[in-house]
Amino acid sequence: MRAVPTWVDKVHDRDKVEQCIYDLCFKPDGSQLIVAAGNRVLVYDTTDGALVQPLKGHKESVYCVCYSKDGKRFASGSADKSVIIWTSKLEGILKYSHNDAIQCMSYNPVSHQLASCALSDFGLWSPEQKSVQKHKSTSRIYSCAWTNDGVYLALGLANGVVSIRNKVGEEKMRIERPGGTNSPVWSMAWNPSKDEPVDVLCVADWGQNLSFYALSGKQVGKERPLGFDPCCVNYFSKGEYLLVGGSNKSCLLYTREGVKLGTIGEQSSWVWCCAARPDSNFVAIGCQDGTIAYYQLIFSTVHGLYKERYAFRENMTDVIIQHLITEQKVRIKCRDLVKKIAIYKHRLAVQLPERIIIYELYSQEASDMHYRVREKINQRLDCNLLVVCTNHIVLCQEKRLQCLNFSGIKEREWQMDSLIRYIKVVGGPANREGLLLGLKNGQVLKIFLDNAFPVSLLKVPAAIRCLDLSSSRNKLAVVDEHNTLLVYDVKTSELLFQEPNANSVAWNTSCEDMLCFSGNSTLNIKASNFPSHQQKLQGFVVGFSGSKIFCLHIYSMSTIEVPQSAPMYQYLDKKMYKEAYNIACLGVTDGDWEALAKASLEGLEFNIAKKAFTRIKDLKYLELIHSIEERSHKGEADNGLFLADILSYEGKFSEAAKLYRKSGSDQSAMNMYTDLRMFDLAQDYLGSDETVDRKQLIKKKADWARNINEPRAAAEMYLSAGETHKAIDIMGENGWIDMLMDVGRKTDKADHQTLSLCAQHLRRLGALTHAAEMYKKMGEMQSVVELYVEVQDWEEAFLWADKHPEYRQLVYVPYATSLAEQDKFLQAQKAFHKAGKPDEAFRVLEQLTMNAVNENRYDDAGYYFWMLSMQCLDIAAEDESEYEAMMTKFKDYQKKASMYYVYHTIQRYMDEPFTSYMPEALFNISRFLMHELMVSHPTGISMFSTLYTLAKQARNLEAFKLARHVLDKLQTLRIPLRFQEDVELAALKIRAKPFHDNEEHQPLCYRCSTTNPLVNNSGNQCVNCCHPFVYSFVSFEILPVVEFVVEEEITDEEAVHLIQQSGSGKTDRVGSANEGEEEQNEDNRWKETESGDAQALMLDGSPSHMQNSDPFTSNLLGFYQGGSEFQPVTLSRQALAAMEPHDVIICRWPKPLRFQFFKNIMPDVPITHCTHCNKMFHTDDYILQVLQKGHCPFCRTPTMENADNHID
To answer: Where a domain ends, among 530, 562, 594?
Structure first.
């Protein structure tokens, strides 16, 4: 650091008496200096020290001046007890007074409130206030300062105390200092730095100490002894440095921690005041003898560079290590003046005034930036240059070099003939590193740490300013004091070349033949002996690595990315491809890489071209090089042909064609032109030459037309070139049906492949008639059928199936599958049968049935089971081998169909809050299902739901005995939680009811007239005659019908004929003729008898009367009572002929089953019989269901198809 006087002035009064400079301050913009000199206020221009204007207004000496932060006004305080406010135009605008002489003043940096301090009080003034608020002080006030945020005011008192006040003057903190009255606080200042986490107050007292405090009163850092009485202390505007002046007759520069850095100016009297110009390195000093000195501080650059690591000094006490490639930075706080810095590999040496500290990296990684202390040499060592090596430091002092180890022991010393101007470490093994020296006499030496004798390399005519050694150490670059660059061969000392206007030089560490030098604000890059490439540059170069140049400009180091394009093209012009590639590797643009690659390729340097094209990822050229290399390995050695391929890739087609013809490869030229769609040039190239197939040219032209979206032209060209199939594909892609038909009709019927292709496209385009025409022309009738099936044109498909029965299966199987997917199962079943696929029909239906059960669709499950049972009948009728199995399944499926049909009602009753069924119907349904569940229990049917419904309806209908039985059975089952309480409560309540059932709900057998119990262990049949009950399949009331069978020799058709014949007109006429006789016989069957006083009337039961009665009635009781098997009524032909046909219900089951015959015992009760499912219903119930649903409630046969249902 050097202090250069800019201007000096000495103030006298009229009598030439020196006037003491008590205080001074800068205008915030730094353009003016306000000085308190005698009883005047002087205003100086800081540029040249000219006095702008003296201000008069005080009668006695002016002790203090201060400027507001906004630069609009400043104030002066005097021994005459007054304060004057001045504007920036040097006009006085306000004056107020205290009771004592004014000692100090300070403007609030935020609110511009002025604090003026006298000996015994202080006042606060602001432009908004009309009066000055004054506050008493317990001790004399010598100094004051506002915090950076303007919230608090610090007062320095004569008793050594610092009083912290708020903006209204109230004391908030009191800092008691150890010196007490022996250490009056003469000056203090707050650090303006924004980097500090807390406000720091610097206190200078006349106990000759410098101390620092936080706002809380806690001391920051340690107290620094000064050795003199300080009269003033001031920070630089950014807080990095501190100025202190006083009885030592000089102004000293300190760090913000209080570390002394140096002296700014020696004076002949006390320094009463000092201040730093805002945002600059200028300092103003005021002395007791009236001297005003204005200095410029010049901070010299202390730095060191090794490859990409640059270390430099900051704020005089910190060392910053910067990685020039990654821009990483690390700071080392030395807390003392840094005098010299040296860096080498993983070592860093920092010289302080009293010691040298050696640092090392934590690791050997190239990216590591963390340093730690390795050694400390606690000696005061003076040197001009400092160099660090692996285990040594080298000190340069004028002509002498000293080598010290890290313990501070001198191991070797060299004495030179002239001053050492430049020194650099050039590497080498540990403890044997080599140093390059440049002397003032022009001599260049090389010394080794383990060798006492310097090695002379060469000598230049002038003093050396800078030098550098190439990476291979074969070339030496020297810059002399005449700014001339000289490059020598180290081995021969031969001067290779020289360049003017150079102030620094650096070899490229990655390229032996490249260096850069700077001078006259220009950067020069020179490769080999080629001319230099120049560009603008501020500063001078200190390093060159790859494409990065390290430039030092004033105090900052920057990295400049310099593309190496110019040197690369210089090598390419000389066809030096290998050297050009090496230069490109240092850093060029993608365009430069492409130029290098193409130039190398044309020069047939395939290896370099491959590397260059790989760098820019040009796969096209890499494929070309690969193909050329493969051809070369196979023995092809025609470089002309290779060059022709290269020229064609580069777009030089006419030159390539000439080389192809020269090499005798016309086909290659044709391929080039056709691939590029240059058909006219290809035609010109052919000329009258017929050796090349012109048809092939037309084909390629068609390919091109197709690719450029000219399909019609392409199709016509393909047809003319004989590529019919490609033409057909284009026509099909564009939907040109007319062209397809034209081609198909012109094609011979033997050409199946072409016709088939036309038919496929026509089929895809929906032209089914035309596609069928193509198939007919080929004789492919099966394809015609498949065509109509594919588009589901079933009418046409059925017509073709009728014409060609062998294709019936091709039509009806897809038709049946389509119907099944649409849930049209009856139609699907018929279609499967027509297709001869009964097993498929059965399998689909069975799967649907299981799905319905799993999904709790019990009405659908009942319907599907009924359909399955009818399917079983069909299979049993067609296949005798499956008869037994199918009949077993038929009975099982019929039973399950009824059970699921019934359970659907119970499930809806359990799940839904309301039901349309009467209690009697629910009672009958649940009772029917309970008896069926005694025999089998299909999947999905809940025994609990069945019994719960039955129990609930039994209680409602007063069937208490049944309800108790069912509730007892319910309690043995697992009851759902939501019903558990209801069931338990019902079981308790039923105990209070009588143990019998309402007789009107007990079922009656219409064959034997036996009243059956409500719980029948035999199931749904009579306990006496075992006659199965026939239920109405809506309300499930027992119908008054009795089943009868015909004698074995009578066929079903004959029996039907006899029954229908008995109801003819003949029978009616016979009935009319015998009417009187029957009445007479009826009267004769009663006989009257008298016995004593009593008379009796009895019916004559003689055999003659029994023979004349109804034959069915006479056979009705012909069964063995108490038997376990049902014995039906068997009728002969005579009995059948005697029956009334309207009373007979015939269930016409399909083969192999026989018909079932039932007689309505109560003809007045109308019964409807469904001829499809053979279920019987009360007619009223059936009609209501049909009106609601439109079909039979059980088999879902539509009403129109059930028109012939029988109603009795």
So the answer is: 562
- How far is residue 942's CA from residue 1081's CA, in Å, rounded to a whole number? 58
Q: Considering the entire predicted model, what is its pTM?
A: 0.52
Note whether 132 and 178 are same-domain residues: yes
- Sequence-distant (6+) residues with CB within 8 A of 406 are 358, 374, 375, 377, 391, 392, 393
Report pLDDT for 355. 92
Instruction: Report DSSP letters for 879-929, one per residue.
Output: -GGGHHHHHHHHHHHHHHHHHHHHHHHHHHHHHSS--SS-HHHHHHHHHHH
Please state the rounded mean pLDDT for residues 494-501. 90
Write the DSSP symbol of residue 1020.
S
Please state whether 316 falls in left (phi above 0), alpha (psi between -120 and 50) or beta: left
Q: 674 or 500: which carries more pLDDT confidence?
A: 500
Q: Looking at residues 532-537, what average pLDDT do you find? A: 87
| Both tokens assigned to 738 | 């007319």
Q: Is residue 1067 part of a domain?
A: no
Considering the domain architecture, whether residues 611 and 580 belong to the same structural domain is answered as yes
Write down the residue that tokens 């002790």 correspond to. 63
Give the pLDDT score at 1092.
45
The tens digit of pLDDT for each residue in 194-221 reads 888 889 999 999 999 999 999 999 999 8
Question: Looking at residue 1110, what is its pLDDT?
Answer: 65
Backbone angles phi, psi at 263, to 5 degrees: -105, 135
- The DSSP letter of residue 1037 is P
- Count of domains forming the chain: 6
Residues 133 and 239 in one domain: yes
CATH of the domain at 159: 2.130.10.10
pLDDT tens, position by position, 46-89 = 999 999 999 999 999 999 999 999 999 999 999 999 999 999 99
DSSP three-state, residue 1145: strand
Q: Which residue has the higher pLDDT, 731 or 1081?
A: 731
**CA dist 989 to 324, 962, 963, 967, 986, Å?**
99, 14, 11, 11, 5
Same domain, 744 and 727: no
164 and 94 part of one domain: yes
Between 528-537, 1038-1047, 1098-1107, the lowest mean confidence (pLDDT) is in 1098-1107
Whether 1050 maps to a domain, the answer reads yes
Q: What is the pLDDT of residues 815-863, one digit of tens each?
A: 666 666 666 655 665 566 555 566 666 666 677 778 778 888 888 888 8
Query: What is the CATH number for 504?
Result: 2.40.10.360
- The pair of three-digit structure tokens given for residue 363, joined into one six-digit string: 């690791």
Residue 89: give the domain boundaries: 2-290
d(CA 459, CA 473): 17
Secondary structure of 133-201 in HEC code, one letter for each residue: EEEECCCCEEEEEECCCCCCEEEEECCCCEEEECCCCCEEEEECCCCHHHCCEEEEEECCCCCCCCCEE
Do residues 519 and 604 share a domain?
no
Residue with tokens 């009949």: 887
From 78-82, 367-371, 430-434, the region with the lowest mean pLDDT: 367-371
Q: How confident is the model at residue 1107 (pLDDT cuts 50, 70, 90)?
A: very low
- The helix (run of H) or strand (run of E) holding residue 550 is strand 548-553
Instruction: Check whether residue 582 and residue 710 sit in a common domain.
Output: no
Which residues contact residue 796 at a Cβ distance below 8 angstroms, ignoring those fewer than 6 apart? 788
Complete DSSP assignment for 73-110 = EEEEEETTSEEEEEETTS-EEEEEE-SS-EEEEEE-TT
pLDDT at 801 over 70: no
* 673 and 711 in a common domain: no
- Single-letter amino acid code for the residue at 1018: S
537 band by pLDDT with thresholds 50, 70 and 90: confident
End-to-end CA distance of the chain: 133
Written as one letter, the residue type at 1085 is R
Q: Which of 822, 853, 877 is the last residue of a domain?
A: 822
Put the strands of the sheet holding 318-323 in their side by side order: 303-306, 309-314, 318-323, 329-333
Q: Is residue 407 part of a domain?
A: no
Domain assignment of residue 636, yes or no: yes
